[in-house]
Amino acid sequence: MTIRAILTDIEGTTSAVSFVFDVLFPFAAKHLPGYVREHAQEVAVAEQLDAVRAEAGELTADTERVIEILLGWIAEDRKVTPLKALQGMIWAQGYKAGELKGHVYPDAVEALRRWHALGIALYVYSSGSVQAQKLIFGCSEAGDLTPLFSGYFDTMTGGKREAASYSRIASATTHQADEILFLSDVVEELDAARSAGMKTCGLVREGGDLAGHPCVKSFAEIDPLTL
C-alpha cells in the first residue's frame, strides 16, 4: 500500500528532547506561578484550573495549592491534559515575546517540506497540547512550518501507547491506517501504531534499536515512496 500520509511525534523525532526538557519545561515552571495568579479569573485559564482540581481530587484547592500541584506535575513530567494546556498558554506568551524559538532538526525541516511538495499529507501526534505543537512549528528556528501540516493530535485523542488512539487518528483523516507512516523514537508508541495497522519507522538519532521496527538516524534516510 502506498504511503499517502505521515504522522510524526515531536520529542526525539522532529525536535531534540533537550529542547523540551532544558528549555520549554523550565520556562513554563518559572513563569507558571505568576501567569496563573494573573490570569486565574479568565475563562480559559479558570477551566483548566478546575480540571487540575478534578484530576488531583482536590475540588476546593485554592489558587496557590493548584500552582503547587502543577509544579509537582511538571517535576514528574506528568502527561496531564490541563497542565499541557496551561503550559501551552505560557509558551505562547514566550514565543510571542520572542523569548522562545521552536527547535526542529534541519533534516526534519527539509524532509517535511519535500514530502509536502510531493502531496503527502502531514500530521502531528504529541503528548504536548495541539497549541504547543503549533507553537513549536509556527515559531520555529526555520520559520513558520504550520502550512505544511494537515492536522494535529494530542492526548485528547488518547494515550500514545494505545492502539485505539492511532485508529481514531486514521479515522479523523481521509486515509486508511495502512496508508499512514508513523514516526517516533518510542518503541511502545510504534508498537501501538502498528497494532492499529499503520506503517512505522523509528528515529534513533543517538543510535540504538527499536525492536521490530525499521530505524533511521535522520529524516534524510526516510523514503516513504519505497516503504
From TrEMBL:
UniProt KW keywords? Amino-acid biosynthesis, Hydrolase, Magnesium, Metal-binding, Methionine biosynthesis
Q: Which CDD domains match?
A: HAD_EP
Give yes or no: UniProt keyword Transcription.
no
Amino-acid biosynthesis is among the record's keywords:
yes
Source species, domain of life: Bacteria
Please name the pathway: Amino-acid biosynthesis; L-methionine biosynthesis via salvage pathway; L-methionine from S-methyl-5-thio-alpha-D-ribose 1-phosphate: step 4/6; Amino-acid biosynthesis; L-methionine biosynthesis via salvage pathway; L-methionine from S-methyl-5-thio-alpha-D-ribose 1-phosphate: step 3/6
One GO biological-process annotation of the entry reads: L-methionine salvage from methylthioadenosine
Its cofactor is: Mg(2+)
- Cofactor annotation comment: Binds 1 Mg(2+) ion per subunit.
EC id: 3.1.3.77
Its UniProt entry gives the catalysed reaction(s) as:
5-methylsulfanyl-2,3-dioxopentyl phosphate + H2O = 1,2-dihydroxy-5-(methylsulfanyl)pent-1-en-3-one + phosphate
Q: List, in alphabetical order, the Gene Ontology terms for molecular function in this entry.
A: 2,3-diketo-5-methylthiopentyl-1-phosphate enolase activity; 2-hydroxy-3-keto-5-methylthiopentenyl-1-phosphate phosphatase activity; acireductone synthase activity; magnesium ion binding
Q: How is the subunit organization of this protein annotated in UniProt? A: Monomer.
Q: Which family does it belong to?
A: Belongs to the HAD-like hydrolase superfamily. MasA/MtnC family.
Function, in words: Bifunctional enzyme that catalyzes the enolization of 2,3-diketo-5-methylthiopentyl-1-phosphate (DK-MTP-1-P) into the intermediate 2-hydroxy-3-keto-5-methylthiopentenyl-1-phosphate (HK-MTPenyl-1-P), which is then dephosphorylated to form the acireductone 1,2-dihydroxy-3-keto-5-methylthiopentene (DHK-MTPene).
Q: What is this protein called?
A: Enolase-phosphatase E1
Q: Which organism is it from?
A: Pseudomonas luteola
Name of the gene encoding the protein in the UniProt record: mtnC
